[in-house]
Specification:
Elements: H1 3-13, E1 22-23, H2 24-31, H3 36-46, E2 55-56, H4 67-77, E3 81-83, H5 85-91, E4 96-98, H6 100-103, H7 109-126
Parallel strand pairs: 1-2
Antiparallel strand pairs: 3-4
Amino acid sequence: MRIEYVEAVLAVVELVPSGAAVAYGDVAELLGSGGPRQIGRVMSHYGTGVPWWRILKSNGQAPEGHEARALRHYLAEGTPLLGNHAGYLSTGEGRWRVDLTAARWSPGEDDFDRIDAIAELLERRLHRLSVADDGMSV
């Protein structure tokens, strides 16, 4: 995966405000590049330095394997939730998810300006050759 794409995805993710969330496909649509799987791959490999918990499956489920940590973030940020999150916290049992209808980020005009700038930079950078980020290239 090209590092230019990774950097663009992470830049868009950093714009999602506290208490809000978007689906992987939303990030791809905002960026105008890739799809949910590409965004998921970026987040799973490079997303630890950004608010990764704000990027979800389209059904509102937290990133797999990180549900407990994500839930703590959602509660601290006041992210709208559905289901038995209290039971999940106390016993590890119970199904819950983010109420993506209520929590979905709706970018404002300034946000769209930033997103457009990120997408334009990505487009320009993709026309140049880059070294694969595989740890083996010199």
